[in-house]
Amino acid sequence: MMKSFIDKDYIAKKIRLERKKANLTQLELAEKVGISAKQLSRIEIGEFMPSLITFLKIINVLKIDIENFGVIVKNKENILLKNLLEIIYSSDDNQLQMYLDVINAIIKNNKNKNLPRF
Questions:
Q1: CB 102 within 8 A of CB 110
Q2: Which DSSP symbol is given to 82?
Q3: Which of 63, 14, 30, 31 is CA-nearest to residue 39?
Q4: Same domain, yes or no: 58 and 87
Q5: Which of 10, 32, 37, 57 could bond 3 through an S-S bridge, CB–CB 3.0 to 4.6 Å?
Q6: In this structure, are residues 96 and 52 in contact, taking their beta carbons and an 8 Å threshold?
């Protein structure tokens, strides 16, 4: 049965297992993701859920397919999607907020012009 992103215990166990398979300490993975080792420890024991951005960074570093968490990815071979995801994974929170603001402005502008949404 496929687990979902909201299953905190599954996420905790999967991240811990994959970190160990990658021969990374909590400190090493935390540094690569940009969080504290204490925060990663709390994620791995299921004490709290990572933010979506942190979650995406963790699975990117550990090379975990997001579909392991119940997310169905359409067009996995889509180069544009891969490029956008790479930008997202390598961005900090400020950059991500800027991208989101720009996308929302474009969507709002398209709605005002009655153009098709992308």
A1: no
A2: H
A3: 30
A4: no
A5: 10
A6: no
